What does this fold into?
Amino acid sequence: MGFTLIYLLPHSKNILGETVGRVVMKETGIEQPIRGFIFACTEKTEAECFQRQLFGAHKVYAPIVIRIRKGDLLFLSNLDTDVMYGAFQAVSDGGLNIQPDAWKGRYPYQVRVETLGERKAIENARKILNKLKIRRNTPILGKRLIEILDLFVPSPLLLNNDLKLERKKSFHLIARQKEKIKERIDEVDIEEEIPLIEATTFWDFPRQNYGLTTKGDNKYPGVTPALIIYNLVWRYTEPGDLVVDPMCGSGTTIDVCEEEKRRVIGLDISPPPGRFDMIQSDARKIPLKGNSADMVFIDSPYGDNIRYNEHPGCIGHISSEKEEFYDELERVMVESHRLLKEGKILGWLIGDQWVKKKFTPVGLTIYEYLCKYFEPVDIICVARRGQSSHTGLWYNRARRFNFFLRGFKYLLIMRKSSKKQPCAEGSRKVEWTHYKRRG
It folds into this structure.
């Protein structure tokens, strides 16, 4: 069953109690394209997968699992024996803790499955998947999905000489799935590769967007790269958690959270035209209850170098060379602390300034202010892309006149903690493991 047309029903209320339109999806009766996905198991976990008729994954692969919907085709690869089992069909959407006690809670992102007739084991799984360029974060679509299914079709010779009903059932069920795939073989409703979260403290995203749908507006001044928010929500929240962005700009946070199945409230002092899902509000006085947010994300001004809007209260009208700039952002920090639940995360994206031969370390100053209220978790270096100064002309000027173009921003990751430790702790004993250098 598919869904399409979005329309508005009046007289519903948003989180502030304001009357707004309510978005509703209209059922069309049209089946959606079938996609395929690979799950992994080991010799220790394989039997439980089959007994429970449930496949599970670690949070690393959660973005893949939540995109699975009822009717998609699944395959199970045993990493120890190099055997792939199939074919299976999802009988639920992918979700969190469908059976919380499965695998002792180690693989909480799960989907219910049923076998398409008889379960078949295919050897040399790694070789097959490598040949087809299939990984766990690459959905299997169209011709490749048919090619994988063909591996699990019982031989016609066996069907003629074998009375086993399950084998005949497999043949007909898989044949039917192949026909459905062929009917919609040119339709794609999922990205070719679902991003895995970053592993290091250097993030470099060539594009502002990811996936098939637009996140925010890449023409908006200072627009946030969508994968920054994607990484934060998948590291620090779960589906259904509430994310708040008090300086939401063009709405990137809203769009990412909706795609990744988080609840989200986006606020801005001057919402852009057409963003009816954003609340007009000053980040220094947020009209939300305290201790309600599972994560707060802020991409704040780092001076008056960008004209975000004409609102007289915009902090982006204040120079970062003035103490007033930091005083106003400190008020945003206090509000963010009030909003967050205990132990939850604030992500703050900020850059430094160099103008007219003067360097202002905005990022370091904001970090010092944040440490008054939060416990530091880590600092990420985010490469700056799409800058107007990133041209041959400006590169030449930077070299000739001996200054640096801004090449990165800080992503300051902080935690609300009643047991907050100072940013500069006293000495503590760490037992280091020393490795020999290679080569």
Q: What stands out?
A: Residues 1-30 form one domain.
